[in-house]
């Protein structure tokens, strides 16, 4: 790994892309209503959540994920195809972790696929951004 090949503006944009994907993914028209039902949450309960804490930690963890992925991709041969592939594979890895935790929490397969699918899509996009922005 050559840290001089980590493009930090690309890491920041990749991290922000997680917000965009999440905003679409968890919106009521796509998977939001199903996710709320399987999480046993209501819109009112979600509205009462501490937005600063939720979005602040989401930003931090998205940045950590994007930086970690960028470090794995810190190679002169990395391109958009390899970046997206590595992101997809990282998404499969996180899908597995989400599935394990969710199975022990007695969550539904729909819940697992909603959350795991978000990881796959968002990490694939993060990898594509990092691979493209060389």
UniProtKB/TrEMBL annotation:
Q: Where are the transmembrane segments?
A: 6-27, 54-74, 80-100, 112-133
Instruction: Name one matching Pfam family.
Output: DUF1761
- Which InterPro entries does UniProt cross-reference here? DUF1761
Q: Identify the domain of life.
A: Bacteria
Keyword Membrane listed: yes
Keywords of the record, alphabetical order, are: Membrane, Transmembrane, Transmembrane helix
Keyword Membrane appears in the UniProt entry: yes
| Name the record gives this protein | DUF1761 domain-containing protein
Source organism per entry reads: Mucilaginibacter aquariorum
């Amino acid at each position: 790994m050559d840290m001089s090949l980590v493009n930090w503006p690309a890491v920041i944009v990749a991290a922000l892309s997680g917000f965009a994907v999440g905003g679409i993914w968890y919106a009521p028209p796509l998977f939001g209503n199903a996710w709320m039902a399987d999480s046993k949450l209501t819109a009112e309960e979600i509205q009462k959540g501490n937005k600063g804490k939720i979005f602040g930690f989401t930003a931090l963890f998205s940045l950590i994920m994007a930086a970690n992925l960028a470090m794995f991709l810190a190679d002169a041969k990395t391109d958009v195809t390899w970046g997206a592939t590595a992101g997809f594979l990282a998404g499969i890895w996180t899908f597995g972790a989400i599935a394990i935790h969710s199975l022990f929490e007695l969550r539904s397969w729909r819940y697992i696929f909603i959350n795991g699918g978000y990881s796959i899509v968002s990490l694939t996009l993060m990898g594509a951004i990092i691979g493209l922005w060389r």
